[in-house]
Amino acid sequence: MNSPLDQTRRRFLGQMSTGLTGVALSRLFAAEGATPKGTHFAPKAKQVLQIFCPGAASHIDLWEHKPLLEKFHGTPLPGGEKEVSFQGKNGNLMRPPWAFAPAGKSGKMLSTMLPHMARHADDIAFIHSMTSQTNTHGPGCINMNTCFTREGYPSAGSWVSYALGSLNDNLPTYIAIQDLRGEPPNGKANWSNGFLPARFQAVAMAAQQPLRNLARPASISSAEDEAARDFLRTINREHEQQHPGNSELGARMAAYELGAKMQLAAPEVSDLGGEPKHVHDLYGTGDANSLKAAYARNCLLARRFLERGVRYVSLYCASRASNVDGFLNWDAHKTLKADYERHCPIFDQPTAALLMDMKQRGMLNDVLVVWCTEFGRMPTHQEGTSGRDHNPDAFTTWMMGAGVKGGVSHGATDDFGRRSVHDVTSVYDFYATVLHLLGLDHEKLTYYFNGLQQRLTNVHGHVIDKVLA
Amino acid sequence: MTYSSTSVMASLFRASSSTSAAVFLSQLLACGAEDAVGLAFFEQKVRPVLVEHCYACHSAEAKKLKGNLYLDSKAGWEKGGDSGAPVILPGKPDESLLIRTIQHLEEDMEMPPKKPKLPVAVIDDLVTWVKMGAPDPRDGAKVAAKRGDKSWWSLQPNKTDLATAGSIDDFIEAKLKEKGLGFNPPADPRALIRRMTYDLHGLPPTPEEVEAFVKDCETNTRASKDLIDRLLASPRYGEQWGRHWLDVIRFGESNGFERNFIIDDLHPFRDYVIRSFNEDKPFDQFMVEHLAGDVVGKGKPDTEVGSAFLVAGPYDDVGNQDPVAQKNIRAATIDDMVTATGGAFLGLTLNCARCHNHKFDPIPAEDYYRVRAAFEGVTHGRRVVATDEQRKAHADAMRPLTTKLAALNAKKEALDKKIDTRAKTQFAQMKFTRPPVDRFGTDESFTATEAKMLRFVISGFTSDADSKAKPGGLGGRLTEFQVWSSSGKNIALATQGTKAEGAKSATAEDFPEAYGPQYCIDGRLGEAWFIGTPSVLTLTFARPEKINRITFINSRAGKEDAEDDSKVRGATPTEYEVQVSMDGTTWRTVASSEARQPYTEALGIVMARRTVITADEKATLAGLEKQIAEVNAAIARVPKLPEIWAGKFAQPKEKTFLFRGGDPMKPVNEVTAASLNVLDGVTKPYQLSADAPEGERRLALARWIVSQENPLTPRVLANRVWHYHFGTGIVDTPSDFGYLGSKPTHPELLDYLAAKLVANGWKLKALHREILLSRTYQQSSSALSNPGMQVDGASRLLWRFPPRRLAAEEVRDTMLAVTASLRLDPMGGPGFRLYKFTQNNVSTYFPLEKHGPETYRRAVYHQNARASVVDVLGDFDFPDVAFASPKRASTTTPLQSLTLMNHRFTLDMAEALARRADGPEAVVTAYRILFQREPSETESGAAHALLAKHGLRALCRALLNSNELIYLE
Questions:
Q1: Are residues B936 and B842 part of one domain?
Q2: Which of A354, B83, B154, B494 is the most exposed place for a label (fewest CB within 10 A)?
Q3: What pLDDT is stored for residue A31 in this prediction?
């Protein structure tokens, strides 16, 4: 219990101990036996921002440059003729629809479709050798969030909440910000607490979607609400006095006090009106493209959550499958060029602005940023189309911010991006690294459920040293 | 360790590295001292290699044992690791996993890991050693890991003689005495009736019931017995305990995974569960019906429905084309059935033996595949579940109708053929002066004209000749519609102030813009308008413009990089008129599709038909179509045979194999349906042949699970009953009686209860009665005057009745009950929903803001879709049913307080309670209804103050949030 984070938490609790909240929090923890487990060693990061582009955003069209793919465009993938993947047969190799260009001092080759993101190239650690357990979106998304393809396992954000607890006393610990276009594949299972207790689930909140049940009903005046809460306090106190030996009673009273604080804090944090115009312009919240503007507002909201001590924020850019492939998300099966010319501009400026804004504010000293998608895409075009099918054998993710070494690339796929071949990496390794940066040993963070001491990383995972600062 | 001829052998061994193993072996055998020589070889050539290269991960000293494999003893390699088989087969190096891994012949298992291959000479030595029979002197070494073996407590035969020994209270009191503790005094009658009513019904008692019971206790020594009898006889009992069971067997009414579609016909199974509890159906029979209801109850729907247990879990149905993925999905689908079966009935985590032998329990991987073999022929889906009479009646009603329909269809086809023959001839003679429509862009030019509005009225599509094309599926689509001004500028752009209107054939509720006509004027290909009915696109320009041309495009990409038709999605308009207007009332046609070459010959014939068909033929066809429609309507009126989601069964086409590492691409050896090794020696084993009928496999498994000798099944069930009565089981991991589960606090009591259960013919009600009548159950929950709190804060020893918070359903049902809003009928049938379900390829579930009165049924009747997250239930730990939930969490969060204070449901309930309690004694009435007691002076004073200032609703809202309402003592 001597890690810096524990000290922070203790200080934080100590500061509040004069007020009701301090008592309330500790009672809440004590009642559940859910006191945060604490770190295993000194952490580099205290918070996490996860940016998720669902639909399998193509590694070879965005992040990982494959010159041979351009050279051998239109010829068969060596050894992969007529390969059958998720939607069926594959055609010949297909080059990315746009050029790549060197970015930053590192000269990292990135797609020219992401000009704003390119400015962060020197701060990003790319992981080019990711592999997935599945070629299907829904299971793929939850695999990227929980390390299991099956529903029912806790998301990384829930594990982190379980391990480290809250950094604030008036907002949720873990927030999932979904896209205006809807939920990602497999929906709410992506931020589920799984078998961990319900308090570790993410709270869904976005610029377009306030926290459910937060607002006092319109027909109730604040005076009435106050009076009702006062009365409730009185009768609960009396009831508690008559029923010693049940710590849950006090915990529930504390939960009402915390809920009241949240009721005040959440609207304040969600109100973007106080942000200066230049910040709005930086993010693009007023963009004519309504989807981009909506995502930009969510980026800004993410920063505000993190500033106020939300431990883990998941931010989604795009959503689920629809009747048209690649329409609501990055799933470009048939018309890659047209699809990504819609998705990239939505993603690029707001995300880059969020990273820049956090960097300028010094937030990246505490916040670890990770970018994910569920898997990659084939280097070939899908037979009869100019899109790409699913590729679970290769994809890119990246990290940035607290504890991360910028301007490096870990691992690589083969010449065409078909398979990860150098320093092959898994979702387990990815989260072993995330937990490591948070001061947690992924093999020691466990919870008993259905016959096993369960772990986020199942029975696998190695920290990816190369991305550590 | 001593051995002979050291030096001679040593020289031989040195030679071995460069000599072929066979030659060397014969030399050795010629020595006539196999044993000694072999052991010497081991010491000199093998042990050092094992120590240097293997022990770090495969020995008792390993920092972390890998693959569960010990190589520091003979027993270790004989037992094998996760593969579940010996890693060395003496004499057979080619089949020995250890050799194969160091030869790098096993994918993903190259040894030593992440290091260069061992030198050839070293590998040869090990091969030689295995050929020699793998002599190994290392006996007695540690193979015992931290794990259970067959002597594990739960695998021992049940002590059936206990059924007549002592009583529940004796067992409990004995343990209490060991700790110097004793029972609490009895609970007061009010607390007791509240406890029992919630326990057996999940609902609060009425004030009248409480009053009557309190009085009864004063005079009637059998008062609590009478109460228990009344509660057990009520159908509310089955609703409460059936709900518990649905948790145990991971019952959910959507398929989960990406599509998560809702299942609307699983409710008969839920009703069957409730009915079975109410009837006190023997549980052994109930479990057999779960696994093989279709076999034991053929033609008896009430029994057959039990098999829905097998398919009540989540499964992936996304339609993967990748053959490896398909096998994995199938493996995962059956895994859900194996997991559910092991957990619910046996308390075994069989699923942990899918990839290797169970790491903690003596369950070999083969056991997992024996159960898989039983389920190999089960698939998810619905099937007809009907009586023979129903089937016959249905066939009788259908026969004349289908005969008639066939005759009419034949007539129509003959006539169609006749007309089409003439249409073809006509088509061959028709002249078209203009090219066909182009899906990548079709132009229509016309004399320049002034227009404020333009509409595109579509009457035909490229899909018209395709009988399978359906509206809303691959219907008509346009990605862009351009209108050109005389000066050559496209004015049909939103950025130019143009507005587009038109019906769409698809919607996405969570994304209202999707598929709309505005995509025709967004200046980009890509998104399309899904053309609805009427098929009219109406454009209104910012101001009147002089225009002379339009272009409509169906493609999602430019023609320049189009290699094929697939970029064109949906159908393109082929027949249309372009009309203009200044005022939106008077329209003038400026262009049309007239004289365009048909898009295909088939479409041309469709057009030609219109010109060649005679009036008589038209009338005859219309007549036939009318008759066909009538017959179809009559068919639709015949009551369908009841189809329910109870699984589909077929003789498996494939054999069952043990998969190495759980990987379906790595089959090892064939496995057939059989009893589990883990209980060999305790139960009577069976083994079916590879071609055993599908149903027989499930029935055999079911019979074995409930067989007399099986110690697990009654123990697990008795423990569940205890768990739900006291909040914690005697074993507090109710679906895991293995090594990682917890050990029983009162092992003899558990066996006593199990024996009683079986002696009672597997009926639960007798067991409930005995438990509820015990002193243990009826004691007070107070912590005031018992030292138990210091010794046993969690009350596991039961020095008091453990207080508990209500479960999610109980919280909600209580609010409905105390406000007199609860509707007890219908008791079953289709469930209600506290979410809005939408489907657009995948499903989305939106929690409702307002819960209408149609939802005021008991929560057990909620249609329980996976990942639907309903706040009023989910906040209070209602589990998402991705997995079984053998025990509920009970957490306290600020979100609960926000939900219960602010959700419209609370407000509606507060208003209902206010109406019910209204009157001169409102405070007293409300307290009596909610808590079945009078308010104290403090409470009364505070309540009246609130009432006076803010009214009765404010008081009721606060009371519904009180701790007393949702905590039981």
A1: yes
A2: B494
A3: 47
